[in-house]
Amino acid sequence: MNEIPSFLTHYYESEYGPFRNICDLPESDWEAIIEREKNASTEFNRYSMGKEFFKNRCEAEDHLIQLYASKFGRSPKRRPSYAILGSFDRTGKMYRHPRKIELPLSVFEENEVTFIYEDHSHLGWTMGSQPKPVWFKEREYHTMIFSKSDLGTAFASYGWHEWIQSARSQGCWVSSYVEAHIWISLEELKRRSQVMGGFESFALPPTVE
Predict the structure, then answer these.
(1) Which long-range contacts (CB under 8 A, 24 or more apart) does 70-79 make?
(2) What does the H/E/C string look like for 177-206?
(3) Less Cβ around it within 10 Å: N or C end of the chain?
(4) Taking Cα atoms as reference points, which of 102, 67, 77 lies closest to residue 204?
(5) How far is 144 from 154, CA to CA, in rounded Å?
(6) pTM, rounded to two decimals
């Protein structure tokens, strides 16, 4: 029997630290980050796309925020941090010197964490102005976000376990995980961490030396 994971994993670049969101940066900072990261030999170097990556990412995230507001009846107080439901350590290969932090789902209230399958980038295609790739097949859940209490129904209704198992068996990146969005601040996460004895950070093998 397939079980729904009871934890999240947040992956990040060790140099910059955890729970950061590039869409919080002013556009004036984009060029410096692109120059620093564009030639890194990571498995999926998003920064090699230049400013287009930032624009597409922030457009998709704006639609994610709209979905949050529609679901909970109010806008979030901040942009989210990102994680994976359960784990998918290949995600760390996006970073030069990756680390990860595991967080139990139990530390979050219903409106403090949401989920989307596969990840929110497709909102730029389904809700925004970005052209859809020829391989993309839009499904009902592509314009939906889910809370903790929705997960059981979502997995059962849309066959996510089977989709994820199939994607991973084929060595795919896309479709291999459910993306999670953490809507509380780093300060609040730290406070809850202290109450629970701390969240431990683990180093993953470096992508580049």
Answers:
(1) 71/114, 71/145, 71/147, 72/111, 76/183, 77/183, 77/185, 78/183, 78/185, 79/21, 79/23, 79/24
(2) CCEEEECCCHHHHHHHHHHCCCCCEEECCC
(3) N
(4) 102
(5) 10
(6) 0.94
